[in-house]
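During the second year of the project, the team shifted from modelling isolated chains to modelling whole assemblies. The rationale, set out in the original proposal, was that interfaces cannot be judged from single-chain predictions alone. As a representative example for this report, we include one of the complexes processed in the last quarter. Its constituent sequences, exactly as entered into the pipeline, are reproduced here:
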Amino acid sequence: MTSLPLLTLMMVVPLVGAVVVAALPAGTARLARPLALGASLVTLVLAVLAWVAFDSGSDEMFQLTETYSWIPQLGVSYGLGVDGIALALVVMAAILTPVCLLAAWDDVTPVPLGDTEDDFAQAEHVAATRTKRYFALMLVLEAFMVGVFAATDVFLFYVFFEAMLIPVYFLIGLFGGPRRQYAAVKFLLFSLAGGLVMLVSVIAVYFAGPGGEDGFLVQNLVGNVTGSPEALRWMFVGFFIAFAVKAPMWPVHTWLPDAATEARPATAVLLVGVLDKVGTYGMIRFCLQLFPEASQWATPVVLTLAVVSVVYGALLAIGQTDMMRLIAFTSISHFGFIVLGIFAMTSVGGAGSTLYMVNHGFSTAGLFLIAGFLVARGGSKRIPDYGGWQRVTPVLAGTFLVAGLSSLALPGLSSFVSEFLVLQGTFMRYKVAAVVAALGIVLAALYILLMYQRTMTGPKPSFPDDATPRDLSGREKWVVAPIIASFVVLGFYPKPVLDIVNPAVDTTMRIVGVTDPSAAAEASGSAK
Amino acid sequence: MHSLLTVDGEAMTAGAATGAASVAWLLVALPLLGAAVLLLGGRRTDKAGPLLATGLSWASFVVGVVVLFQLLGQAAEERAHHLTLWSWVPAGSFDLDLGLLVDPLSMAFVLLITFVGSLIHVYSIGYMEHDPDKRRFFAYLNLFVAAMLLLVLADSYLLLFVGWEGVGLASYLLIGFWNWNPAYATAANKAFFVNRVGDLGLSIAIMTMFISFGGVDYATVNEGVAGANQSTLTAIGLLLLVGACGKSAQFPLQSWLGDAMAGPTPVSALIHAATMVTAGVYLVVRSHVIFDAAPDAALAVALVGAVTLLFGAVVGCAKDDIKKALAASTMSQIGYMMLAAGLGPVGYAFAIFHLLTHGFFKAGMFLGAGSVMHGMNDQVDMRRFGGLSGAMKVTWATFALGWLAILGVPPFSGFWSKDKVIEAAFVGEGWQPWVLGGAALVGAGVTAFYMSRLFFMTFQGDKRWTDDVHPHESPLLMTVPMTVLAAGSAFLGLLLAWPFAETAPIVSWLEPVVGEHGEEHPVIAVPLLIALTLAFVAFGIFLAWRQYWQAEVPDVAPRGSVLTRAARVDLYQDAVNEGLFMRPGIHLTRSLVFADARGVDAAAGGTAALVGGFSSRLRRLQTGYARSYALTMLTGVVAVLGALWVIQ
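Output from the structure prediction step:
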């Protein structure tokens, strides 16, 4: 089992798939979508194998490791491996990619410029080419996402971190909405700016570390990054800024709403649901694990930013009239929660944050994709253009509500467990921060249910020429089913994820050198 | 073994569940299965769905009865069974199993919920017969029953919270069941929002429990109370009270209940009268160990109850909408229960007692109101009712029993339970018995007035019907459940109080959970108190009789006094909420949206561009070709690699 380089394969399969899809000759273009889906499903199988092979009782920091020397002169290795946190995110990416491919099935449609036969043929040809590109880019993105979570070499991580931008840039810039160019460039500039700052820290880490031919390996760096407190703090800040942009946190969040609304829903899911988790994942892997002291030094500021993000994102979401922007702002609020749990530095908050990353991936996927189905039918992203759709497309409305309830962390659904754990973990150390962030619970009810009310309730709308929109198709139901299943299963049985996450959180806390505040400290005695 | 400390330190152990109690999970699973089948089955289940849902609800009741008999066959201190189902949230130092607790308190609720719930399922088959969406309606009803049972059977506060918001969801879905009417959709949202405010209190309470006691299951919490400091316990108690206020529509989180009457009437009967809204009382009684140790928090509970019982009663006097008048009454009656629960050991059993009898008589009256609406083209304005006693004999008779019960006329149910609450409210020292008892006593008189007003305006006096109505009695599917509930309104109180026994059966049944009841004496002698109460009640009936039966009732409400006008708009509750929260909130979000686009975006964008060194080229890049960006990036990576090489 362990002899199989599962993590590398999880990158190779989608990359090969992407090349094959992109290179399909003109006559076989209709194979592009099934082939892409097939490649992503094979990757999912590999992810399941990785899950099975992973031993949550192991003492090793990383498992399924593959380490080869790459540029020994610079200390760069091709190092892959996962702990529980990385594995959970890799598996989430592997599940969401096929879901998104299926959701994106009809995203590219022929747009004839006239009504002659030639025009139609021309449009068909363009659509076929664009379809190939679109699906190939999503597969490339999947490969890089696996790589960024599985990299155990800081430099390799950086390479994937930047490489991810390329497919996302094209996915938004070539396939997005009317302001796609603006959104794509804004996304790119913010990310590159963050990336450059991080690069300085990446280089500095090498010199502050033990050095040598594998001096960029996290395993070698942990506990061995030395230097003056000031220097380490600057390095921390370099990483943190990049991750804060990616996560995104207030006040560097402003690229996200534009990117999310201009991108196709499936792209938005991969971007917000999976790729942005690199930010919060990076905070654990690099900020906390490489700079324990600096992390504690920065905690008050980070917690403040996190709490501001929670409340600010929620308030902004309430004020949106564009459905996709609204969902993007809910994510800013949710990312605030995740960062809060990470920097609370308790076992409860850490486990909660990781679980939150997974659950948020699914609930955001639900919101973006189902909103996308609605927009495909109604032809507008503006909330005021809707109303009464529950009576037109009841299944769509019902699933949209369920996805919304997951986003507002309804107990019984998965997000509740993670949101509660984050708040509980924070409350153990920082009561005020937790209580203010808990306001997000009330605000979440407002933004979700107001959106539902404005789009789905009210008098049944009338449609011209009997062109009443259809309810969810079979394909769309297959998109929604795994997402909703995850809400219920992880809501009542999050144990499988928590079991693999807990040891990694313990390791992180040990590296940082913190322990949970004693539960009985508050009460003066007989607590269990 | 989990031990539950009772007040005086006598341990009641909850052993691992045996016998019927070991399948107590079926109580929740059966209606949940119904909801799942109806929601996922789609139109295929349109026909059989309602019957399936009703059958599963009854099946849950049968399981409840079997478990009840098991408990009855056991010694009082062995009547608690703990059932661990699976490891739920093992996250670091927070490690919680998902488990159920079957004990006398939860069983009292299980029987109320499943019995009244099943009757209302039956009633709904008739009431919702012509609704095209009735499958969805029954799915939600089943979902509600499952969530409510989870709420009362949970063995931890976190699992209780799942049921707690689960019933809130069912309530939201059912209030908005006819949400093509925008006002109804708004009412549904309002209920959810106000409840979320309350739930914020409950969640912070749970978090405080964990850091104070090291766990959030009842056993751990109850064990930890003894060693906790007073201020922590008071804080937890007050936070629990905030949660209870939201769910039970207690002051100041009461504003949603009146609007919730937008839901179909069976929903009003089941959720917004008999069961869900009483969950706050359950929460307080379930947490009695905390409140026993935090008298300030307990006093707050009693005061909230006293204020709400008067608030609801005053509002009830002015409402002309039959359902809204009943809703105000529900709020007021739950105020009585909260008052009792806040009184401590002397009140817990009576809070639950009144909750049970109220569950029967108020559900019965709501179903009666539904039956009236059924016969009157869905009208709800009592000024257009009158003289219905002849046209709807069964409805009239069953409603009359409910009316007598809520008034507290002996020997009907409410007499036994409400009178006990009033007596308990007069127990104590200093100002408390006079204020709390006085509120309860005055409330009884006002209750008699507004309930008699409602009854007379609907069933007695002149017929003020609009021309298009032809009142008729409802079908058997509706009248049979009404009759059963009316029988409960008549006799349940007597059965549970059973004055010929040494201790009332309800008191001795709950004693293992809530502790020794204790003999305490009201500041006014009991016989005198009973006489006083009855005098207040008689006076209330007399006033209503003079004004709404003997005198002519105008079709359009007269202008009324200042108090009447205030009561009609629920004592300005919505105006206050809108002025204090809604309008400033809207203003805040609008300004933030504006500021985000103009300020934050510009600042962040500018900084990012500067840091990236793109400031001057920003414009050119934006118009450039996509490929050049990729190239730039690749060049960057190569350059960095080269630079590293050189440094090395």
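The beta strands of chain B are 2-5, 11-16, 81-91, 94-102. Confidence is low (pLDDT under 50) at residues 1-11, 610-627 of chain B.
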